[in-house]
Structure formats: structure tokens, C-alpha cells
Write a structure and sequence with these properties.
It holds the Pfam family HTH_8. The protein has 189 residues and is of the alpha/beta class. The chain has eight helices and eight strands; from the N terminus they run E-E-H-E-H-E-E-E-H-E-H-E-H-H-H-H. The chain has two domains: 128 residues, Response regulator (Rossmann fold, 3-Layer(aba) Sandwich), CATH 3.40.50; 39 residues, Orthogonal Bundle (Arc Repressor Mutant, subunit A), CATH 1.10.10.60.
Length: 189
């Protein structure tokens, strides 16, 4: 079930309604981000699935949402759409570990104000949520390197192919041995 934190006093610069739904199926990340957002003056509600998120939105539609793109029981874009049906002025940010242009466009069309790569820093999430309408948020202080983005993408495709090296190599258009060498290395910084 969803976890709700206690109310924190709003900090200067924050709007009056600081309710924030955080949806991610990675419990450790969800909890860390919830604590970090609470320290920044938000009132986070945590959910790990599409169904939990929709239930939390039905109970009280938040002013802000931070939603993982891919969840075990569905798509984060569905949550953003549902949130905007319940509260048109809500501001949502989509997080993803394996983004591409198509999903970024879909997220923006659904009403997300930004699309951030994981692991997202709480400062970047806050900046995106509080960016003025029509303005672009500042670029992240510590963006992932191109090597790290590539590595994350390869890991995701490998996972989706049920750890089948040959199938992953075929889908990525690379030689199987090249893929095996990449998989054997540690993640770049």
C-alpha cells in the first residue's frame, strides 16, 4: 500500500500546496527520493505501482508528481494522464532509466513538464517541478555521461531479453562478443 509522510512546513519559494506523489517500483530509490523531497518542504506520498498511484490520486490528487516511466503493472504515462484528469494544474515529471525520443514525446503530450534520466538527483527533480510554466528547467548539475547512458540502455535491453546475450546483441545490432565484453565491465561513472 502507499506510504504517506507527515506534513513538513513549506519552505520559502514553494507554493501553498506541496503535496507530491512519488511513484517508482524501486523501493530504495522511492524511499530516498521521498525523504529528500520532504526535506525540501514537500509532502510526499509514495506508491510502487500504477494501481497504488491511481488509488492515491483518487483519495487526494497531488499538486506534484514524480513518476517512473516503466512500472511492474503498467506505464507511468497512464498515471500522468489520470492525474491530469483529476487535477488539471498538477505538475508531473517522468523519470526513466532507459529513455528515448518516442517516450519523451509521449510523456510531454501526456502533460509531463519534464523528462529526467535516472538516477535523478532530488535537486534536479525539485528544479523541474518548480520551473515556471513555459520556461525550461536548468540543466542538471551532474548529468550522466554518454558512456553511462549507453551502458544503462544496454543493461535494460539485456534485461528485457531475459539475459539472453545473443538476442540482446541482435536487437542492439552489435556483435555478441562485443556485447559480452561490455556486460563484463563495471558501469561507467
Amino acid at each position: 500500500m502507499s506510504e504517506t509522510s507527515t506534513a513538513a512546513p513549506a519552505q520559502s519559494g514553494l507554493p501553498q500546496d506541496v503535496s507530491c506523489l512519488i511513484v517508482d517500483d524501486d523501493q530504495a530509490f522511492r524511499t530516498r527520493l521521498g525523504r529528500a523531497m520532504e526535506k525540501r518542504g514537500f509532502q510526499p506520498t509514495l506508491a510502487e505501482s500504477v494501481s497504488e498511484a491511481k488509488s492515491a490520486i483518487r483519495q487526494s490528487a497531488p499538486a506534484f508528481a514524480v513518476v517512473d516511466l516503466r512500472l511492474d503493472d503498467g506505464d507511468g504515462i497512464d498515471i500522468v494522464n489520470f492525474l491530469h484528469e483529476q487535477r488539471a494544474d498538477a505538475r508531473a515529471v517522468i523519470l526513466t532509466g532507459y529513455g528515448n525520443i518516442t517516450t519523451a514525446v509521449a510523456a510531454v503530450k501526456a502533460g509531463a513538464i519534464d523528462y529526467l534520466a535516472k538516477p535523478a538527483d532530488a535537486d534536479d527533480v525539485e528544479k523541474a517541478l518548480l520551473a515556471k510554466a513555459g520556461s525550461l528547467p536548468e540543466p542538471p548539475e551532474n548529468p550522466m555521461s554518454a558512456d553511462r547512458v549507453r551502458w544503462e540502455h544496454i543493461q535494460r535491453v539485456y534485461e528485457l531479453c531475459n539475459h539472453n546475450v545473443s538476442e540482446t546483441a541482435r536487437r542492439l545490432g552489435m556483435h555478441r562478443r562485443t556485447l559480452q565484453r561490455i556486460l563484463a565491465k563495471r558501469a561507467p561513472q
